C-alpha cells in the first residue's frame, strides 16, 4: 500500500477517500487462496467516460500530459461519473459533497518528475513513461476492458500463471457457498436507500408526460395548480440526489455528450412549455412540450446504460418509457393498448424473477405477488367501467410501478475491478479450482 500512502501524502486526500487503490484477488489474505494484486487509480482514458458523460462539464483533458483533470469548482456532486467509470477512479467525498480523483500528478510530471505513486512503490511494480499501449495486455484478471482505451500498460502474468493460482498438497476443495462467505462484502454504488428519490422522480416524469399526452387527446383535464405542485415536487426530488444544490444550473451544460444533461434539459423544457400552454391555451405549445416530454422519457432510460443487472437482461419491466405508455393508455381508456403493455410488463417481470431465482439472487416472492396483482386488478376495474375505476386503478397501478422501479435500483450495479475479481474467484470456486488448506 506504499503507492496509496504516497498518493495520499502528495495530494492531501481524505483518509477515507483514496485516489489510488490496490485491488486484491485475495483480500481476506487467506493462505490457501490465490494471491494477486494490481494497483489502479485513474487511467486517463482516450475515450474517458467520466469526461464524456459529466453533465456539468467538470472534467477536461490537459493537452500537454493527456491527463483527465477534475475541476472541483464545477462539480455538482451528482456522482454520475462514478457510474460511468469502470475503474472506480472518481470518488465521492461525503464531507465536501463533490467528486474527486487522481490528477496524474500533473504538476510533477510537467516538471519531469514521476507521479508520487511511482516514486513511493518499493518493489518497482509501477513505472511511468510514454510508450504504445498493447490492448491485448488489458486482459489481466480483474481489469475491465470496455474499449475506452485506458492509458495504462499492464504487464501480463507469466504464461503458466495466466490466472492467479496456488496449489497445496494437503488442501481440500472448498464449496462455492463457503468461498463466497469468505469474500468481503462490496458496497454497491447503486442502492435503493440512496436512490429512492430517483424512484419517485422517474415515476413523476412518466406520470406528467402521460398526463399531458392524454390531455392533448382531450380525454382528461390538466389544471395548472396540481400540475405545478407535482412539477415542483419532482424538481425537489432530483435536487436531493446532488451534493451541490446551488450549482444545479450546471446540469444542462453537456447536452452534446451526457444523457443526464439531456434528461434534465428536456424535462425542464417540457415543464416550462406545458405550464405556459395551460396559461395561454396555445395548442402549438402543447405539441412542442409533448416532443420534449417523449425525449425526456427516452433520456431517463438511457441515463442508466452503464448499469449492470443481476438478471443480465437487457429490457426491464420498470423502464420509464413503458411506464409512461401504460399511464397514457389508462388515462385515455384504450383497453387494447393497456392489455398489450400489461402483457409485456408482466412477461418481462416474471422472466426476470425466474432468472434471479436461477442465479440464487434475492427475488422477494411476496412483493412480486403484490406487483403482479397491481397489474391485474386495475385492468379488471377498467373492464367493469365503474365510476371510480380510473382513480382507484391508477393508485393501484402507481403502487405496482413503485415496487418495480425500486427493484430496478436494487438489482442494478456498477462494474469495478474489485467486483470483477470477486466474480472471478467465485467462478473458480464453482469449478472446484480453489482449494483451502486443511486445518
List the helices and strands and how they pair.
Elements: H1 2-11, E1 21-24, E2 37-40, H2 49-53, E3 59-61, E4 68-70, H3 80-84, E5 91-93, E6 98-100, H4 106-110, H5 116-120, E7 171-173, H6 176-182, H7 192-216, H8 224-239, H9 259-280, H10 283-303, E8 308-309, H11 320-331, H12 335-358, H13 365-384, H14 389-410, E9 412-413, H15 417-430, E10 435-437
Antiparallel strand pairs: 1-2, 3-4, 5-6, 7-10, 8-9
Helix pairs in contact: 7-8, 7-10, 7-11, 7-14, 8-9, 9-10, 11-12, 11-14, 12-13, 13-14
Description:
The chain is mostly helical and 439 residues long. It has two domains: 2-182, Alpha-Beta Plaits, CATH 3.30.70.20; 192-413, Formate dehydrogenase/DMSO reductase fold (Up-down Bundle). Helices cover 49% and strands 7% of the residues. It is built from 15 helices and ten strands. The protein has helices at residues 2-11, 49-53, 80-84, 106-110, 116-120, 176-182, 192-216, 224-239, 259-280, 283-303, 320-331, 335-358, 365-384, 389-410, 417-430, and strands at residues 21-24, 37-40, 59-61, 68-70, 91-93, 98-100, 171-173, 308-309, 412-413, 435-437. The chain has a two-stranded antiparallel ribbon with strand order 1-2. The chain has a two-stranded antiparallel ribbon with strand order 3-4. Helix 11 (320-331) runs antiparallel to helix 12, helix 11 (320-331) runs antiparallel to helix 14 and helix 12 (335-358) runs antiparallel to helix 13 (365-384). The longest helix has 25 residues, at 192-216. The protein starts with a helix and ends with a strand. The model has no long low-confidence stretch (mean pLDDT 86). The chain crosses the membrane at residues 196-218, 224-243, 286-304, 363-380, 386-403. Pfam families: Fer4_11 (PF13247).
